[in-house]
Structures are given as structure tokens and as C-alpha cells.
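Hi R.,

Here's the chain you asked about this morning:
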Amino acid sequence: MKIFVFLQLFTLCVAAVLAGCSNEPTAPDRSKTVFPDANFFYDMIPNDAAFSDSVASHFANGARLRVSPNSSYTISFEIAGEEVPELQLFRSYEKNGSWYYQLARSLKGSLENGRVTYNFICEENSPTFWFTSLVGSDNERYTGSLKKVSFEGEGMYSQSFNLNLVVVGEYTYTSDSLSVEQLAKKIKDGFEKYYKTKIDTIFISYSSEHPEQGRNFSQNRPYVADQMEGKFPALFNVWPDSKKSAALDLILVHRIEQKNVLGFSEIFGMGMLDGGRGVVIATHQTTDFAIVQQSSESVVMVAIHESGHFFGLRHTTQTKADADVSHDFSVKEDGIGDTPWCPPIALKGESVDLAYFNRRKLFGVNVFFDCPDSRNVMYPYDMDEIDDFSFSADQLEIVRKNLTLIAH
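And here is the predicted structure, written out as C-alpha cells:
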């Protein structure tokens, strides 16, 4: 059983886990500035359709937004009563080992049918994070309840993109013996088919030829990637060719050390937010009993699935593994209107997930069960057969919007 994985990054006091956070006044009247006050920030992904109770509970104290230059954003939520809190947005910066906040925006909202809406344009010079705070009419932190917090955005970048297939270590082939060039063409064709867009170029690169990292990767032995090595996807984001640097990297390794994992990705283009990076895919699978060589069709589908995370798509059904990474157990599915989800496997551990998986035995009982989202590209498990997969129309619309927010 192959498992698709995405890594949703989070921070404790931004990046300073133990350094401590400090507040530094940036407005003449400190009483009207209510700084974020949280040791843990839940990320808000632009154009995410899933409503997180965790985000709603922490939004007034501090949630983390990913914003891009010259992009337009809308934040909204449901609220009880007639009071419309002020939304304050903050940058963060480090000084003498501590983290500080700097007020970037103070926004007045509009209330209609119980939902408050705020609009703003980010005018930063580069992609960055902003943090939230809500201020009540008494100039203190707002303490009312929120529901269904939404963060939508659209930017200035192109809706098309290029790919860069980065072969790390020795290329160990697929089970159908495709060459690197043949595999690259198949990947390009697959992206165009499933994402319904034109891929102008798929570059082919080799880790051993990278100007900075090349000496660290031999081309003469297979490379095994560690899913927990968070910085690995960022190693190959800068090449002498600027177009290659701006492409989405598909980092091809022999296998991933963790069992049953064929690929992993950060969610919503953390790499492209600062100029590159990408997703990791493998030609072989680590199992309990053997190292299993994958077909080219499987490699292509893993690349397309993991890139879906990179472009901001969740699994159609969230598993416990997803929640363990994001620390958010309030989301069970992607919230997208035209994608079904699978309640029996939502937020279940791996052993239960695999037992529930199509026509498996659960505690000695035959379960004849098919998940309704099992043919969607963003289903959390690989179905082994490579046919009839698709994105929904709403999923492709989210990808379209998020591509305009990702520098590439």
C-alpha cells in the first residue's frame, strides 16, 4: 500500500521555537495595537476550502497568513452579534535573538448576513508571512466567537509553469525501463493532461551538476531521501539558468526511507514562495519485505499528486498522518464542493486506514467498501490501478488562483 504524504509546516513563535517572542510598539497609540499572542500559529492557505475550527479559535490571538507581492486578498468569517472587530495584520522580524511584530495593516470590516469581510492588497517586495490579531470596540483583544474563517487571494503571476526533473544520485529506472528522457516526457504529458494546462518546458537536471550542492551527491549510487529532512527539497532551487530556477522541481530519488511513502511535498508552494524548490518523488518503494520498483505510470501519478499539495490542495479525506503534521484535527476533508470524501478513514491511524481500505479486513470482518473519492488525484492512498483519475473543476480553479500567488 502506497501512501501519499504532504508536509504542512508550522512554527512556534515564527521560526524561533525556544527563542521567545517580543512585542515592539509600531503605532503612536499603543492602546490601539493588539499584538499577536500565541506560541503556536495555525497556517492559513490561500483559497483553501476547508474550514478549520482550530484557525477560528486562534484567529483573534494570531494565525499565520502566506502573502505574495501585489496580490489581492479577502479574509472573512461568521460572527455572532453586530460588533465588527478591527483586523490587524503584522510582519515579523528578528532582533537580538527575539522575534518582534510590526504592524502592516489595520482593516475595518463590513458585516453582511452575519459574515464579516476584510479586503487588502499586499505590497511587500517579496513573499512573506503576516500574522493576525482582532481588536474589539474597547481597543482590547476581541473575545467573541468566530466560525468558518476564509482566506482568498489572487495575484500577478502566470497560470502556466515549467518543470525541472532533478535526478538525485544514480538513476535506477522504473519497472518498465524508461530512460530519464522518456520519463520526463511522460511526466510532462501527464501534467498537461491532469492539470489541463500547457507545460512549456520540462528541464532535466542532475544533482551532481548543481553549482552548490553537486559535490554532496554522487551520481554513481542510489540516493535514499528522508521525509523528515525538511530542507532537502530546497537544496536544488537555484541554477545558472533563471528559467530552470523558477520551475517547479520534481526531485527524483531512488526511494524514500519511510515505509510505503512514494513522495512528499510542502503544502502551498513554500518553495516557490522564495524562488523555487519542489516535491520529492521516488522510483522505488520501501516496504516491510522488499524494495519495490515502481512503474513509470506510478511515478507520474505521485508527481502530479504531490504537486497538487504544492499548489495548495489537501487530501480529499484527511488522515491522522495529515493531522499529526498540521496539529489540526478539526479538518476531516478538503471542503471542496465537488469532491466527495470518505468518513470511515478520516483522521484514522495508518493501521485502521489500511484495514478500511477497499475490501480489506477490519478485525477479522470483511469490509466491502469503496471510498467515493478514490478516483480523485488527491485521494490519500494510491489505488494501484492507474486509470480514471482526475481533478475536479473546483480543485483546478484553486490551483489556477494559487499559481497567480506563487512566484515562478
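One quick note: The chain has two domains: 7-154, 158-312.

Cheers,
M.
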